[in-house]
Amino acid sequence: MQPITTKQKYKLLPMSHITHKRGDTEIDTVAFSEKHFGDRRAFDVLMEAQHYWNQMDDFRHDRERNKRYTYGFQWDDVICVDGKKMSEEDYIKAQGNVPLKNNLIRRLVRNVLGVYRSQLKEPTCTARDRDEQKLGETMSTILQCNMQLNRMNEVNARSMEEFLISGFIVHRKSYGWRNAKEDCWTDYVQPNNFFIDNNMRDFRGWDVTCLGEVHDVSFGQLCEQFAHTPQEYRRLKEIYKWAARREYIASYAERFGYSRLENYDFLLTSEPGRCRVIEVWRKEQKPRYRCHDYQNGDIFKIEVSDYEEQVANVNRERMQMAKEAGMPEDEVPMIKATWFVDDYWYFYYLSPFGDILKEGETPFEHGSHPYVFKAYPFIDGEIHSFVADVIDQQRYTNRLITLYDWIMRASAKGVLLMPEDCLPDGVSMEDIAESWAEFNGVIVYKPSASRQIPTQVANNSTNIGITELLNLQLKFFEDISGVNGALQGKPGFSGQSAAMYNQQVQNSTMALLDMLECFSQFTIDGAYKDVKNMQQFYDTKRVFNIAGKSGAQIEYDPKKIRDVEFDLSITESTSTPAYRQLANDWLMQLWQAQAISVEQLLEFGDFPFADELLQSIKSQKEQIEQGGMPEAISPQLMQQAQQGANMQAVNMLHNAMVA
User: How far is the C-alpha of 560 from the C-alpha of 465, rounded, in Å?
Assistant: First the structure.
């Protein structure tokens, strides 16, 4: 018997059969779909997006109803009468009545917006490393400048109004060229055009895997964004030649096995001449290496294709250096790489036919999508708006008002009973009615045998409890919304103390605190992406200055700020009158104690005359240094100072300059 050789004993198996293969397309979802599905992969993404769009249909209907009630269209709910569908307004008119309404919801929304405006806040950056706190102050100033550029006070107020009406708000953060300026921009996204993964349950939005937006743009705007060659222009023209026809989209869907599409509104625009583009952001997966460099403590991710260069070669070099230095191998700080499946954000711009206009991995260094969204309260994935809570009270109030009006019009009011045998000869009933309507009319009648005389009938049938019911509904309206009379600015009762009135205002504000704080978190999330975009795209030195605030000019140095990690918080805005007055009083006290100079007072204070006065002081100092005589303050500047500040403070500043 011959001995068994090594070649006969073992059968070698390929490594791809017994372990993972680097760059395996079965793990890389994008590469796998490109390889196996071809043109179908984009259409499948489109249909997945349409599924999420359809799941938000109830939200869009609820939002439309809430918006109608907010802006006064409160009798448009559809009802069924004798098998015929009609609006409540048409039904009331068919009964011969007038559909009256008293829009309490609009007043309620304005009051809450007033509370938000009065508590105006702004995001502030704080560096995690206390040694870099000065950079945090710099980034805060840059963030405030960007908020001024985007008119964020107005954008946030309108977003707050949307939040009250629908309970869902979306902003889009981007960087590009707009209004003759290249900068970071914030866009309000209409919630009806937005869709999101219906499997999401985290009210922070951290578990979202797919979201997107539908865009209706002109063909010129379409070409500006997606046509970079004449061939691409002709391709877009060919695609959108048929994109507005339902039958072509249906036949194209059947080609990929979708025999019936439930909702064409997602694929077809309702505006003639516009082109529908569907933007989809999905989380895709691919194999990567998670690396821990023990040399400097860095933790980072690399692509599988970069393993040899960034890990293996570096480890070999360190081993060689350790060998030359006589260091033991177990003491060499190596880069430890762990293979894992990573998820990342990938975007698609699609036509209604599933054509890919543009695709790629997220270009943002924050690694996420460009959207910031907030749903309230989002318990079990449900959205319930502030306005929806009081619609029933609004409906019942309108019903009581309409009923009150109908009863008053139907009741007898000043009806004259005129017996026929009381009519004088030659006088008609019309003559009696005309005389009755005159304020000094005289009615001539002939007494009848029954001694009946003309009498007036007035039936007071309106006092049947409607007023009490109406007051009860108005009380319910305040109790349910939490916005009472004090918060609405209504005067208190006679003898009410100011402390009690202020306590009522504070209690009402507490009822709104959850919603206001939820919106503040939305503002922080948006500011975080703004800061990350600035760190990424501000690649040259820039000088920033907050408009209307002296001393706020700072220089942005990308080399210093690019890698700084910031925490963001919400603080009271320095633009509120109360904050400015407090800061000015405090600075005046420091100046009176000679702790700061008059230049510092004008630089950091918020006086309406500060810039010109500071410039005048510097000009006088330059004249003195050059041996000249300083000029007096101009009468115009003195008049501005008198109008904008305390006269005593102006005189003190003037004495300080001439001293």
Answer: 73
Q: Whose CA is closest to 66, among 26, 97, 106?
A: 106
| 172 contacts: CB under 8 Å, gap ≥ 6 | 186, 187, 189, 213, 370, 371, 372
Long-range contacts of 409-414 (CB under 8 A, 24+ apart): 411/459, 411/460, 411/461, 411/462, 412/457, 412/458, 412/459, 413/458, 413/459, 414/456, 414/457, 414/458
Last residue of a domain, one of 427, 459, 491: 459
Give 239-260 pLDDT, tens digit per residue. 888 777 776 666 666 666 665 6
115/120 Cα distance (integer angstroms): 9
Q: How far apart are CA 271 and CA 217, in angstroms?
A: 10
Q: How many domains does the chain have?
A: 2
Give the pLDDT confidence score for residue 212 in this predicted structure: 95
- pLDDT (average), residues 398-415: 76
The pLDDT of residue 16:
46
Q: How many residues are recorded in the chain? A: 659
- How far, in Å, CA of 533 to CA of 176, rounded? 11
Residue type (1 letter), 448? S
Q: Which residues constitute the domain of residue 454?
A: 412-459
Phi, psi of 357 (to 5 degrees): -80, -35
Residue 111 pLDDT grade (very low, low, confident, very high; cuts 50, 70, 90)? confident
Dihedrals phi, psi of 474, to nearest 5 degrees? -65, -35
pLDDT tens track for 429-473:
787 777 777 767 777 777 767 677 777 766 655 566 677 777 777
228 assigned to some structural domain: no
Choose between 24 and 377: higher pLDDT. Answer: 377
Inside any domain, residue 223: no
Question: Would you tell me how many other CB atoms lie within 10 Å of the CB of residue 311?
Answer: 18
- Residue 310 pLDDT more than 80? yes
The answer to the question of residue 353 being in a domain is no
Strand positions, DSSP E, 298-454: 299-303, 335-350, 356-361, 371-375, 415-417
Does residue 531 fall inside a structural domain? no
3-state secondary structure at position 656: helix
Please compute the mean of the pLDDT values over residues 211-230 and round it to a whole number: 92
Structure tokens of 440?
Answer: 């000094």
Q: What is the C-alpha separation between 428 and 431, in angstroms, rounded?
A: 5
- Choose between 605 and 270: higher pLDDT: 270
- Cα–Cα dist 548/606, whole Å: 9
Residues whose CB is less than 8 angstroms from the CB of residue 383 and which lie 6 or more positions away in sequence, other chains included: 59, 62, 166, 167, 168, 375, 376, 377
Instruction: Name the amino acid, one letter, at 36.
Output: H
- The pLDDT of residue 208 is above 90: yes
Contact predicate 235/242, CB 8 Å: no
Distance CA 382, CA 378 (A): 5
| Res 10: pLDDT | 44
Q: Which of 381, 410, 491, 351 is nearest to 95 (CA)?
A: 410
As a whole number, mean pLDDT of residues 397-421 equals 76
Mean pLDDT of the chain: 79
pLDDT band at 17 (very low <50, low <70, confident <90, very high): very low
Q: Are strands 168-178 and 371-375 parallel, antiparallel or unpaired?
A: antiparallel
The identity of residue 340, as a single letter, is: F
C-alpha to C-alpha distance for 111 and 512, rounded to whole angstroms: 11
**Helices and strands (H and E) in the chain: how many:** 24, 17
Among residues 459, 488, 517, which one ends one of the domains? 459
